[in-house]
Design a protein that fits this description.
Elements lengths: L1 E3 L8 E5 L2 E3 L2 E3 L5 H7 L7 E7 L4 E8 L7 E7 L1 E8 L10 E7 L4 E5 L3 E7 L4 E7 L8 E3 L17 E2 L1 H4 L9
Parallel strand pairs: 6-14
Antiparallel strand pairs: 1-2, 2-10, 3-4, 5-12, 6-11, 6-13, 7-10, 7-12, 8-9, 8-11
Amino acid sequence: MLSFGRTRLNGVIPFQRHPVVGHRGGFARLFCPQLIEEAGSKFIAFQTNLSMNPAKHTLRGMHFQRPPHSEAKVVQVLSGAVFDVVVDMRPESSTYLSWQGFELSRENGRGVHIPEGFAHGFLTLQRDTDVHYTMNRAYQAGHAAGFRFDDPAVGIRWPELPKVIARADQEWPDIEHPF
């Protein structure tokens, strides 16, 4: 079973897994397009990805795809824990450049649906953290964009400073006109 919540960022839908646990272990639904649609967003799964992060305080982000290849995604943690961040990149939105963070972990069973038009990134909070993404379309390298995790225009408050970060993620420019 999955249950869904709301956020101040239109279209971002946090959710909670509720596993059935018995003497053999447990069983949990990870994804159900019908339930996501009932929660307020039509989402068709096209691709799944796994991000494997052996080190604590690894940062990945802040990434998004420029139109017409914008991506929606469902993000969950299969092992470990992350501080997961979404940023509204839709210039016409009343919450443009606003961000929200979520602690996602294997233990808490939380996940988040991120609609098109949002940047995404995370910081691992534990060693050996695996993050599972369900995407609504295939990645298009020529449309990838991003900004630095510490861009003052956004002001994300990370729980810790990253210790492992890709050079490309360190070199993203400040936000000016992302689209």
